[in-house]
Design a protein that fits this description.
single chain; 257 residues; alpha+beta; six-stranded mixed beta sheet; 6 helices
C-alpha cells in the first residue's frame, strides 16, 4: 500500500479526520507535524547538525505558511544515538525565529527529528477550493534542492510566512511544494475536483535547475490557485476535468520500484 492509498483508506474507515490540508485546525490553532529521518530525508554529508535543525523547523513552518498562518511555537522530539550535537541542532532551530515550547529526547540507532508547529490564521485556503478559471501561482523559483543535491549541499528551505498570509486572503487553494510540483498540484486537483494545467515555460527555475528537476521536491515554495495572482508568478490555470498536465513526476514514500 502506498502512502496516499493508506490515507484514503484511513479516511474511508473514519480512523482519521480533517487531514485533507497541509495543516489541521484544532480549536483556533493551526497544527502541523513533520519528521525527518536520517538516510531518508537527509544525510550528514549534505548538511550539518545546525542546518538539520533549521531545516526541520523550516519545513514545518512551510506548512503553516501554506495555511496563511503566523507561527507561534514548535514542539521538538529528537531521537539519536547520543546528545553530543544536540545544542548545535537547537541553535539551528532557533534561527527560524519560532520558540521551542516543549518536546522529547530518546535514544535511537539513527537520527530522527520530529517537529510539531503551531500557528494562527485568519483564513486557511486548504486544498479543496480550486475552481475552473483560477490561475496557478508560485512564490519563488523551483529546483534548488535538486541542484544542491547534485552539488553535494542542501540549500536552506525558504520561509514564506508573509507570502502565505498575503495569498491566504485571495487563494482558493494553497499548499507547499514538498513532493514535487505536479505531485503536490495533484492533491489540489483531487480534493477540488478539477484539472490543473501548467505552462512549463513560465515556471521559474533556480540557477542550474531544469524542468527535469521539478519532480525532485523539497522546494518549499507555496503553490496556490487564485482568481487574483497578486504579484506572484503565474505558471498555469485551473480547468474543468481531473488530474495534472503535464505530469513532471514527484516523490512518494513506499513507492515500489
Amino acid at each position: 500500500m502506498r502512502e496516499f492509498e493508506l490515507l484514503a483508506e484511513l479516511e474511508r474507515r473514519g480512523l482519521i479526520v480533517g487531514v485533507e490540508h497541509d495543516a489541521a485546525e484544532v480549536e483556533g490553532l493551526v497544527v502541523t507535524q513533520d519528521a525527518l529521518v536520517e538516510g531518508v530525508h537527509f544525510r550528514f554529508d549534505l548538511l550539518d547538525w545546525r542546518e538539520l535543525g533549521y531545516r526541520a523547523a523550516a519545513v514545518n513552518i512551510s506548512d503553516l505558511a501554506a495555511s496563511g498562518a503566523e507561527p507561534v511555537a514548535l514542539i521538538v522530539t529528537l531521537a539519536a544515538p547520543d546528545l553530543e550535537h544536540a545544542v548545535e541542532l537547537y541553535e539551528g532551530i532557533a534561527e527560524a525565529a519560532v520558540p521551542v515550547r516543549g518536546g522529547d529526547t530518546t535514544r535511537a540507532s539513527q537520527v530522527m527529528l520530529s517537529v510539531t508547529a503551531l500557528g494562527r490564521s485568519e483564513r486557511i485556503p486548504g486544498r479543496a477550493g480550486a475552481r475552473a478559471g483560477d490561475l496557478v501561482v508560485v512564490t519563488g523559483p523551483l529546483g534548488a534542492t535538486a541542484v544542491g543535491f547534485r552539488e553535494g549541499r542542501l540549500p536552506r528551505p525558504p520561509l514564506r510566512v508573509e507570502e502565505g498570509k498575503r495569498l491566504a486572503g485571495v487563494a482558493s487553494a494553497m499548499l507547499d511544494i514538498s513532493d514535487g510540483l505536479t505531485a503536490d498540484a495533484a492533491h489540489i486537483a483531487g480534493r477540488s475536483g478539477c484539472r490543473i494545467v501548467f505552462d512549463v515555460d513560465a515556471i521559474p527555475l533556480a540557477p542550474g535547475a531544469t524542468v527535469d528537476d521539478l519532480g525532485f521536491g523539497e522546494d518549499y515554495e507555496l503553490l496556490a490557485t487564485t482568481p487574483d495572482p497578486l504579484d506572484f508568478s503565474v505558471i498555469g490555470r485551473v480547468e474543468d476535468g481531473s488530474g495534472v498536465d503535464p505530469n513532471l513526476g514527484g516523490w512518494e514514500h513506499f513507492l515500489e520500484p
